[in-house]
Specification:
By secondary structure, this protein is mostly helical. The chain contains 18 helices and no strands. It has helices spanning 9-15, 47-60, 64-80, 84-95, 101-117, 121-135, 140-157, 162-173, 184-198, 200-216, 231-237, 241-258, 264-278, 281-298, 307-313, 317-326, 332-338, 351-360.
């Protein structure tokens, strides 16, 4: 069960400047725990207040260099607080500089992340790849993390052109190997690059190693609130239930602890898919409703892929068909990994709903590359 000190969604949102929620409606549902979570870290802070503080600090800085650096920090905080448009405005102010080489590369990386969150995948991939190349000689670990972001963007945007995926995968394969022992995300990057160029079978062993390393790591990488990134989709795709449960649960906890409402809806959707596969449909529905509440409050791009397996598991063919017809083509990786019926997917779908899904989200060799 959650500690009573844990920040809830409504406390996170209402503490953020400029966000007001309607009164909570009466509900007969009992509270649904996510996991046996640890208490909130003493040093955690609300992203909304942090973003507002940094934005004000940037505006009051007389030195142009300090003003640009603080604007960049404020832009990053705004993005994680679920305000990509405001982040873009601050990023433009930071770009006026002067910025050092590292800060300039970080600004380019943030530009790519904003484009990804706004679902502008054709823009996000080349920007993230270029930022990763610049970071190779400055901060190699961050460069590899940026290549992972580029691959994620390319996987989602691949239905609009396989060239995006090839571009990101080839760049990732050519990045210098880390010195010393490869970490979980180094293995994940290598595995995804191989998968994107050589196929599923060639990458499976390496991706399984990456997931085991990710599950067993000591938490140092959780300093990045976007942790564990694309690894959630990989765990679902490889049917690694143990790792999927561990990282999907922890990613929601981490986003809540840090007040990162900009990344929380995606984490909630992955966890809702997991809860659906576990048969806890009420918990899955509660997570989806929480995600929708955040998106409604922040005006972020809708993320709804968890609703499809949930509707299928409830046997609601009409709702499922409606959701499939309304789904964007860019939802392909999440839909195919989480929802498309197959011999190994434990989610019930009717013949009509299955046909609708296959028409909207065709397999490789039909219309689009299978990307997840």
């Amino acid at each position: 069960m959650f500690s009573p000190n844990r920040p809830t969604l409504r406390r996170t949102l209402t503490d953020a400047p400029g966000i007001a929620l309607a009164p909570r409606p009466a509900s007969t549902k009992k509270s649904l725990p996510i996991s046996n979570a640890q208490p909130t870290r003493p040093g955690s802070r609300r992203r909304g207040w942090a973003a507002a503080f940094l934005e004000r600090a940037a505006a009051l800085s007389p030195d142009p260099g300090a003003r640009a650096r603080r604007a960049l920090e404020a832009a990053d905080a705004k993005e994680l607080a679920g305000a990509p448009q405001a982040a873009s405005a601050l990023l433009a102010a930071a770009a006026e500089g002067p910025l050092g080489e590292r800060e300039s590369a970080l600004a380019e990386r943030l530009k790519g992340q904003i484009a990804l969150d706004l679902r502008r995948f054709g823009e996000a991939v080349p920007v993230l790849v270029q930022a990763a190349r610049r970071l190779e000689s400055i901060e190699p670990a961050l460069a590899r993390a940026t290549y992972l972001e580029a691959l994620r963007a390319a996987h989602i945007g691949a239905p609009f052109g396989g060239e995006l995926l090839r571009h990101a995968a080839e760049a990732a394969r050519n990045t210098p190997s880390p010195s010393g022992t490869s970490g979980a995300f180094d293995l994940l990057l290598a595995g995804l690059a191989i998968r994107s160029t050589d196929g599923y079978a060639a990458s499976a062993v390496l991706l399984k190693r990456a997931l085991r390393a990710l599950r067993d790591q000591d938490g140092r990488d959780e300093e990045d609130v976007r942790w564990p990134g694309f690894a959630r989709a990989v765990a679902l795709d490889l049917f690694d239930d143990h790792t999927c449960h561990a990282i999907c649960t922890r990613s929601v906890e981490l986003a809540r602890e840090r007040g990162a409402v900009g990344v929380l809806p995606l984490a909630l959707n992955y966890l809702a898919v997991l809860r659906t596969f576990e048969g806890d449909l009420d918990a899955a529905e509660a997570l989806v409703e929480e995600s929708d509440a955040i998106i409604e409050a922040t005006g972020a791009a809708r993320i709804e892929f968890a609703k499809l397996p949930l509707a299928g598991s409830r046997g609601d063919e009409a709702a499922l068909s409606k959701l499939v017809e309304a789904s964007e083509p860019v939802a392909l990786p999440e839909v195919r990994a989480c929802c498309l019926p197959s011999a190994s997917t434990p989610v019930p779908f009717s013949t009509t709903a299955s046909a609708t899904m296959r028409r909207r989200f065709p397999r490789q060799g039909e219309q689009a590359r299978e990307t997840s």
